């Protein structure tokens, strides 16, 4: 009798697990279909309103002068032996000083850290990389090449190539996700972790599944699972959607922030108008659902989490929830009025908060600015 009950219990557990997995992927593909329908309506409406302009966009042939600004640092390249990939990075500050490594988000590249490169090069060796699939770094064609483990290994390889075994790691958005993961898997290589507008990956997955409002804000995750169509939607009307991410009222930098100049915007258009550039960036999303949940979660480094009050993509409640996974000092700063593009929107506030954390590095309170 006991054996029958055990078998029945085991069967029930397995069935429940299969139902949960089926429900999980049904949600993903169902939402993907819904987002596709919405995108098709937008495309149809654009064709009606601007039939001649909708499918016009151009590759920017010449980089704007701001990308070659010598005050930001020196453009360098490294080919990693293990992966065979070549990475581009911009570096400033004296070699031998503590390494401060910056990881950008989507849709950005090394240039998003320009204000921080200038600020911290006096006391650090500052390095802002183009992550794989972005900017002048190599763009692997396979979606599998953008798995979490490969992205984390890229950071390890670059730190070691630069001649360091530890760094102050700074990440925003997708760069924040990789920074969290790197700190989880290589705690001995992270002196201090600084994350901007990105929750711990486990916090994000748990929260999004329980809060439809966050799931709605993350709808682009599902849309980006499609092949080629998202690239088209980001390109039409000469990259109007891409520009809108930084400039629109709903998602862009606010009136009190530091707006992107026309030249800054051209820098982004130059980077993402290149052949294959959008596909490389979108491939990060095309692996995310198969990479969660995480098998490891604890972060052993001191952590500074900077969060924008006006983030259009992430709900603020996730910021405080990150505390659960941090086994060291944790400091959370919520910046009022700031958009998702925090280090560009409010560079002075961000730089001051980072300096404070680097100099002191302790505290468990939540501050508001």
Automatic annotation (TrEMBL):
Q: Which InterPro entries does the record cross-reference, listed alphabetically?
A: AB_hydrolase_1, AB_hydrolase_fold, Epox_hydrolase-like
- Does the record carry Transmembrane helix as a key word? yes
Question: TM segments?
Answer: 21-45
Q: Which domain of life is it from?
A: Eukaryota
Q: Which residues form the signal peptide?
A: none
Question: What is a single molecular function from GO for this protein?
Answer: epoxide hydrolase activity
Which key words tag this protein in UniProt? Hydrolase, Membrane, Transmembrane, Transmembrane helix
Pfam family name, one: Abhydrolase_1
Record-annotated AB hydrolase-1 domain positions: 98-344
Entry's family note: Belongs to the AB hydrolase superfamily. Epoxide hydrolase family.
Q: What is this protein called?
A: Epoxide hydrolase 4-like
Biological source species:
Salvelinus namaycush
């Amino acid at each position: 009798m006991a054996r029958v009950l055990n078998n029945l219990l085991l069967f029930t557990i397995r069935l429940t697990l299969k139902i949960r997995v089926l429900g999980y992927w049904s949600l993903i593909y169902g939402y993907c279909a819904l987002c596709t329908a919405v995108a098709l309506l937008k495309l149809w409406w654009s064709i009606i309103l601007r039939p001649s302009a909708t499918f016009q966009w151009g590759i920017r042939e010449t980089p704007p002068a701001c990308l070659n600004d010598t005050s930001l640092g020196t453009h360098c390249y490294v080919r990693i032996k293990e992966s065979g990939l070549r990475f581009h990075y911009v570096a400033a500050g004296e070699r031998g000083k503590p390494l401060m490594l910056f990881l950008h988000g989507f849709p950005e590249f090394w240039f998003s850290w320009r204000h921080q490169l200038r600020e911290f090069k006096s006391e650090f060796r500052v390095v802002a990389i183009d992550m794989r699939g972005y900017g002048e770094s190599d763009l692997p064609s396979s979606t599998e090449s953008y798995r979490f483990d490969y992205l984390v290994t890229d950071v390890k390889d670059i730190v070691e190539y630069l001649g360091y075994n530890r760094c102050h790691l700074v990440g925003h958005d997708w760069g924040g996700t990789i920074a969290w993961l790197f700190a989880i898997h290589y705690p001995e290589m992270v002196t201090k972790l600084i994350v901007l507008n990105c929750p711990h990956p486990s916090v994000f997955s748990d929260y999004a599944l329980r809060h439809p409002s966050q799931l709605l804000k993350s709808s682009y995750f599902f849309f980006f699972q499609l092949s080629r169509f998202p690239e088209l939607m980001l390109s039409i009307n000469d990259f109007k959607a891409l520009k809108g991410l930084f400039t629109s009222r709903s998602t862009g930098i606010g009136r009190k922030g530091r707006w992107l100049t026309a030249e800054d915007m051209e820098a982004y258009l130059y980077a993402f108008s290149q052949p294959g550039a959008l596909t490389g960036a979108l491939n990060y999303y095309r692996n995310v659902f198969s990479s969660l949940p995480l098998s490891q979660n604890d972060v052993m480094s001191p952590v500074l989490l900077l969060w924008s009050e006006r983030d259009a993509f992430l709900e603020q409640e996730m910021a405080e929830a990150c505390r659960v996974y941090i086994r060291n000092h944790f400091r959370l700063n919520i910046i009022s009025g700031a958009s998702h593009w925090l280090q560009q929107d409010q560079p002075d506030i961000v730089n001051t908060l980072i300096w404070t954390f680097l100099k002191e590095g302790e505290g468990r309170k939540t501050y508001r600015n």
